């Protein structure tokens, strides 16, 4: 008799686990939506796999049949938010909206039965929120957010694509405009794509672990390519590794060429 009871308890436990798995979505936080308390969850696509990237400043060469699995998540006042870093849980009605960082790893138990859904798109999923399924979150478990998560979301996917970050309050503004224009034309001129980022919020310095300024950072498809406090090292790196000559500060020929 005890054996029968034990087996029944085990079956109930396994059934509960199976139900939880069937009603749990796992992916990466993308951004909030216009509908209050809602956000988009990235699972995977045929361009970056399960690695979420936000690269709207770079021209992308999507696969011919580009597909993405993504979901729209709606929270209610009864949704439980659990911070796996601290172990603390709270109702969404008791806290401010807690998700802010792109690429944060989430596990979401939803009210509805999940039907995996993949859409064929003509542009990156970061630019498309329409027609993805909507699920109601019962509980959101947020994994600790790391510098690696933050850098990954800004890391280019394709060769000859670069993200250039300048943390330098005293950087020459006129020269910066020339660099920005150079970056926007480099793809057409040289087949090299550069997204120049200067007006980055303070949290970029935090998650990119910028301890001293000025600092200059280049991300390539391989990850962090160079980090230095010497701007001339950045120019030299692009010349050597990317095969292009970056504009030199104070050189009027570049203004004539670019404008």
The topology string of helices and strands comes to: HEEEEEEEEHEHEHEEHH
The helicity comes to: 25-40%
Unreliable spans: 2-18
- How much strand content do the residues show? 25-35%
Overall mean pLDDT stands at 90
How does the major sheet shape up?
5 strands, mixed, barrel
Structural class: alpha+beta
In the sheet with the most strands, the strands line up as 1-2-3-8-6
> How many DSSP helices?
6
The tally of structural domains comes to 2
Structure, described:
With 259 residues, the chain is α+β, with helices and mostly antiparallel strands. It folds into two domains: 23-151, no CATH class; 157-258, Glutaredoxin (3-Layer(aba) Sandwich), CATH 3.40.30. Helix content is 27%, strand content 29%. The chain has a five-stranded mixed beta barrel with strand order 1-2-3-8-6. Strand 1 and strand 2 form a beta hairpin. It is elongated, with a radius of gyration of 23 Å. The chain starts with a helix and ends with a helix. Keywords: Signal.
Provide a short characterization of the protein structure:
With 259 residues, the protein is α+β, with helices and mostly antiparallel strands. It contains 6 helices and 12 strands.
């Amino acid at each position: 008799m005890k054996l029968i009871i034990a087996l029944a308890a085990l079956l109930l436990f396994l059934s509960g686990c199976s139900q939880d798995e069937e009603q749990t979505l796992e992916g990466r936080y993308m951004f909030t939506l216009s509908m209050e308390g809602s956000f988009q969850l990235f699972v995977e696509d045929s361009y970056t796999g399960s690695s979420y990237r936000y690269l709207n400043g770079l021209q992308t060469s999507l696969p011919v049949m580009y597909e993405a699995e993504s979901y729209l998540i709606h929270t209610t006042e009864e949704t439980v938010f659990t911070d796996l870093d601290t172990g603390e849980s709270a109702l969404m009605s008791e806290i401010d909206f807690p998700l802010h960082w792109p690429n944060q790893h989430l596990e979401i138990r939803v009210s509805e039965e999940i039907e995996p859904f993949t859409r064929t798109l003509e542009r990156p999923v970061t630019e498309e929120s329409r027609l993805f399924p909507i699920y109601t979150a019962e509980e959101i478990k947020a994994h600790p957010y790391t510098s690696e998560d933050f850098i990954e979301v800004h890391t280019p996917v394709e060769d000859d694509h670069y993200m250039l970050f300048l943390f330098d309050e005293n950087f020459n503004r006129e020269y910066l405009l020339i660099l920005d224009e150079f970056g926007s034309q480099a793809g057409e001129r040289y087949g090299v794509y550069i997204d120049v980022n200067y007006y980055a919020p303070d949290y970029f310095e935090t998650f990119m672990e910028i301890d001293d300024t000025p600092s200059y950072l280049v991300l390539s498809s391989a990850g962090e390519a160079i980090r230095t406090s010497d701007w001339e090292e950045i120019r030299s790196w692009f010349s050597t590794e990317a095969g292009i000559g970056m504009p030199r500060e104070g050189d009027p020929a570049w203004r004539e060429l670019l404008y």
